[in-house]
Structures are given as structure tokens and as C-alpha cells.
Amino acid sequence: MRKGSLGIVAVLLGISSLQSQTVIPVTAVFKGNFVGRDIIIEGKVEGVISTDFEAEITEEGELIGKLETTDATISGVVKGDIMAIGVVKCTPTAEISGGVIVCRDLIVEEGALITSKVKMGEEVELKKQKKRKTTTGRRSRRRRRRRRGRRF
Question: Is 71 inside a domain boundary?
């Protein structure tokens, strides 16, 4: 594909972006990473959805992958992670499975089905911090000695 042809693919799929809202219609199946402003998912998406604003998954919508957003309203199916700086609202038709829901506030209406881990609070860190493995003991000492040129 040539540079700029992504817009043509989006038009062919029926993805519209009016008034800085991106709508993925019921008839569309989108695979890959997607970055936009306000995103409304009515169809099926497989991949990572990123927005600095609001994301909405309608009753017909399905996301298999990861959602990174400020606020989210879930009415459809999500199989994967939801990372939100603000509020995640689950309506009665929401089905969230697998992965983790990370948010400041979680609103779950009666009827919503959630089978995920939930991490929430005032200071939610969305970026993963790399943890250094610290090994102690005989094996790690041997490795250090080998690096220095000694056998044992």
C-alpha cells in the first residue's frame, strides 16, 4: 500500500470520522492497531484501540484485544484488556472477559458480565514498568564469575 491509502481502506470499510468521532460500523471487521479521537465501535475489531478521549463499544460491537482510553462505555463484548485513566462504565448488555480492567472508577450496571481482574484507584499507572529480576544464590554468583573470566 502506498502512503495515504489507509484512508481509502477506511472508506471502503465504512469507517467514518465526523466531528472528530470515529465510527466503526456494524458491517465492518477491523484488524490491527487503531488510533483516533472519540471512537465508537459498532462492528468487530481485533487489535489495539488507542484514544486520548472517549471510547464506546455499542451492543453490537466486539473488541478482541486491548482498549487504551480516557473514559469508556462498554455495552458490547470485550475479550482482552481495558486501560482507562478515568471511568469505565459497563451497561447491562456488557460482556468483558479475560485480561485486566485498569481504571480510576468502575461503574457496573445490573446485568453486566465481567470475568476479568480489576485494578482501580486514584493513581492508576497505565504504562508497564519493567521489573529487574534480582537473583541471588549460588547460580547467579557463578554467572557473575564467568563474566569476569573466572571458572568457579
Answer: yes
- In sequence order, the β-bridge partners of residue 97 are 79, 115
Residue 131 main-chain phi, psi, to 5 deg: -100, 130
**Total count of domains within the chain:** 1
Give residue-wise pLDDT tens across range 89-110: 999 999 999 889 999 999 999 9
Strands (E), the chain: 16-18, 21-24, 29-31, 34-36, 38-41, 44-51, 54-57, 62-69, 71-74, 77-84, 87-90, 95-103, 105-108, 113-120
At residue 146 the predicted structure's pLDDT band, cuts being 50, 70 and 90, is low
Residue 110 lies inside a defined structural domain of this protein: yes
The distance of Cα 110 from the centroid of its chain, to the nearest Å, equals 23
Evaluate whether residue 26 is within a structural domain: yes
Place of cell 459497563: 90
The chain-wide mean pLDDT, for the chain, equals 79
Q: Is 140 part of any domain?
A: no
Domain enclosing residue 63, as ranges:
6-123
Q: Environment class of residue 17 by beta-carbon count within 10 Å: exposed (0-12), middle (13-18) or buried (19+)?
A: middle
